[in-house]
Amino acid sequence: MVDLCHFGLPDWLGDFQNPEFPHHFAEYARAFAERFPWVTLYTPVNEMYVTAKLSAIKGMWNERLASDQAFVTAVKHLAKANILATQAILQVQPQAHFIQSESSEYYHPAGPDAMEWARHLNELRFLALDFTYGYDVCGRTYEFLMDNGMTREEYHFFLDNSVRTHCIMGNDYYAVNEHTAYADGRVDVCEMFGYYVITKQYYERYRLPVMHTETNNRDEGSQEKNARVWLEKQWSNLMRLKADGVPILGFTWYSLIDQVDWDSSLTKELGKVNRLGLCDLERRIQPVGEAYRDLIRTWRGQVDGGFLCL
Question: What pTM, to 2 d.p., does this model score?
Fold first, then answer.
């Protein structure tokens, strides 16, 4: 499964405010498909919502901006790039399928005075997938888009170029994906609903096959125990979804090896190892890796409906 854009882009393209990015990215995707015609599984652009949020609202990556207009611009360019790349790849490899690995999020209102703010944030979390799948947003979200630089022609591009028939909806879930929203604009991390409830919301909106595309343990302090408990929790949520009729196609623990400096979202270059992988940086399997291996062995051949366990 090939991931063509993961949070960044070449320096010569600048950042995700650049309207030329989608067209150059589509050329790159086509060239890749021509060079590797045997590849049939793609994630053209990873976590479009997170990329736009951290680059254009939180001011941490790429353009390092912090405004609604910058966010709308980044999302529309990322989603357009995703669509144009999908179309380009399909012209070369008609059997290709596309997994939108996207952060599945939810904002809980802290009180009655925060309900409208939380509602707005809960609409924005869908925006990149709404564009990709040609979903017609609600009136208030449409007004927000128009107020922040999107044109009618740009909006109708997404309605007229949906690629959903070739897509699998990937839902990434971590404990930090749920938030408490306050009336003054503050947002705190919380964990309340879990993967089942939030993914069910996404499925009911788009009605596409689902893959749990990312998760890992949230607590490095006692990783050996907590990572395995978290793995079991995610798997149980996934199996409950499948039993309730959601077409589940796969499950992934991210990442294969430990990460470095992801506790600061790569904003600090400290070389700090985050023990979140199935294996350490020397490729030695860790307890959660053994548990993941055992899970695959236990469930292999036991799940109906073409379930792909990764």
Answer: 0.94
